[in-house]
Automatic annotation (TrEMBL):
GO BP: GPI anchor biosynthetic process
InterPro entries assigned to the protein according to its UniProt record, in alphabetical order: Glyco_trans_1, PIG-A/GPI3, PIGA_GPI_anchor_biosynthesis
Name of the featured protein: phosphatidylinositol N-acetylglucosaminyltransferase
Claim: Chaperone is one of the keywords in the record: no
Enzyme class (EC, first level): transferase
Organism: Euphydryas editha (Edith's checkerspot)
Keywords annotated in UniProt: Glycosyltransferase, GPI-anchor biosynthesis, Membrane, Transferase, Transmembrane, Transmembrane helix
All copies of domain Glycosyl transferase family, residue ranges: 186-333
The keyword Transcription is assigned to this record: no
Cellular-component GO terms for this entry: glycosylphosphatidylinositol-N-acetylglucosaminyltransferase (GPI-GnT) complex
One GO MF term: phosphatidylinositol N-acetylglucosaminyltransferase activity
Record domain PIGA GPI anchor biosynthesis: where: 36-125
Length: 420
């Protein structure tokens, strides 16, 4: 598993890599994780079930991503791939430079490569154009891609020009045994609306603030509990202070993932105002805790939960407020599913062992693919239309050959497998 995003950083990608790795180990496979260093966390660390993590001494360039040099990390990545007897390189996240670098190096070494895309991306602005072209170049030789929703698959096929038959849809999952309901934690005298999200623009914080400003004066018995931090935190603080909503808005700030369940069980309704989302893990965690979910109907969200567990709204204030009011009416009329039944339904729909089994099918399929010589690989890279990228791939290949001369494969110790 290769990605810039892993623990101690927290988020959907990090959780996906960790849980998928744990389940693959449980199914008898050897899994290692390659990521960049986090502060003084450099070198090798072991996590649950003996999951080995290599924190490479690579400087972070921007937003937890390494600088895309393509050539500077060839020697250390090659050493790890040989030492650990790796057969498949699985990169995660389109924004992760390290995932793409390790995948390309693995491909030049004759390994199989898989890539999981966790995000939706646009086509209009300059950052989207550059990211999409970079993704297209990096996925030219990828054996198979995985997306977390059918909307995500469409998006990846269009922006990275990957053939549709080489893309599978395997969703995220949640640990429903951790996110269990506890109705005794709810306050029966008020309606508590919980929001747990990174407070950034694409999570719809502007909508969130407008909804709170609209509802609090009209519904004195409504309380908002907001967990999460980010550059848009000031907007919610401003609404609370200027409107005098200190009594009905609680800002918890940054939360550890282990603390999220304790916040969710205090709520009656979970609100998600995302403007774009490939797959929203937060709404599944909330549904697993038995909350009524109100969410914007964007990206892959309509695919995630059945109609009786979610109120879908348009991404505007009027529609979101109407969705919350409908959920409040159903709560008042007791027209709701039993929280424990919701948890059972989520257990059946989203299970990490099932996700691991489906990922295993992809692995077994690509192991049958024949390796291409360098000439054919360069011809494939040429199809992306960026001629200078062929020089980069050729230089990476020559540096791999040089590394073979300096650090011969036969002199690299094979790591012992740690079985716990």
């Amino acid at each position: 598993m290769a990605s810039d995003f892993f623990y101690p950083n927290t988020g959907g990608v990090e959780e996906h890599i960790y849980n998928l790795s744990q389940c693959l180990i449980k199914r008898g496979h050897k899994v290692i994780v390659v990521t960049h260093c986090y502060g003084d966390r450099v070198g090798v660390r072991y996590l649950t079930r003996g999951l080995k993590v290599y924190y490479l001494p690579i400087r972070v360039f921007y937003s937890q991503c390494a600088l895309p040099t393509m050539i500077c990390n060839i020697a250390i990545v090659r050493y790890i791939l040989i030492r650990e007897c790796i057969e498949i390189v699985h990169g995660h996240s389109a924004f992760s430079v390290l995932a793409h670098e390790v995948s390309i190096i693995g491909k030049l070494m004759g390994l199989k490569t898989v890539f999981t895309d966790h995000s939706l991306f646009g086509f209009a602005d300059m950052s989207a154009v550059l990211t999409n072209k970079y993704l297209q170049m990096c996925l030219c030789e990828c054996d198979h891609c995985i997306c977390v929703s059918h909307t995500g698959k469409e998006n990846t096929v269009l922006r990275a020009k990957v053939k549709a038959h080489k893309v599978s849809v395997i969703p995220n999952a949640v640990d429903a045994y951790t996110f269990t309901p506890d109705p005794s934690q709810r306050d029966p005298n008020v309606v508590t609306i919980v929001i747990v999200s990174r407070l950034v623009y694409r999570k719809g914080v502007d909508l969130m603030a407008a909804v709170i400003a609209d509802m609090c004066p009209r519904y004195p018995n409504v309380r908002f509990i907001i967990g999460g931090d980010g550059p848009k935190m000031w907007l919610l603080q401003e609404v609370r202070e200027q409107k005098g909503f200190q009594h009905c808005i609680t800002l918890l700030g940054s939360l550890q993932h282990s603390e999220v369940r304790d916040v969710l069980v205090k709520g009656d309704i979970f609100l998600n105002t995302s403007l774009t989302e490939a797959y929203c893990m937060a709404i599944v965690e909330a549904a697993s805790c038995g909350l009524k979910v109100v969410s914007t109907k964007v990206g892959g969200i309509p695919e995630v939960l059945p109609e009786n567990m979610i109120y879908l709204t348009e991404p505007n204030v009027t529609s979101i407020v109407a969705g919350i009011e409908l959920a409040m009416k159903d709560l008042k009329d007791n027209n709701i599913l039993c929280p424990y039944k919701c948890n059972q339904m989520v257990r059946k729909m989203y299970n990490w062992m099932d996700i691991a089994r489906r990922t295993e099918i992809v692995y077994n399929r690509i192991l049958l693919n024949k390796n291409k010589p360098l000439g054919q690989q360069l011809k494939t890279y040429l199809s992306c239309g960026v001629w200078p990228f062929l020089l980069v791939i050729s230089l990476m290949y020559l540096l791999l050959k040089l590394a073979e001369k300096v650090y011969k494969r036969k002199h690299i110790d094979i790591a012992r497998d740690l079985k716990l």
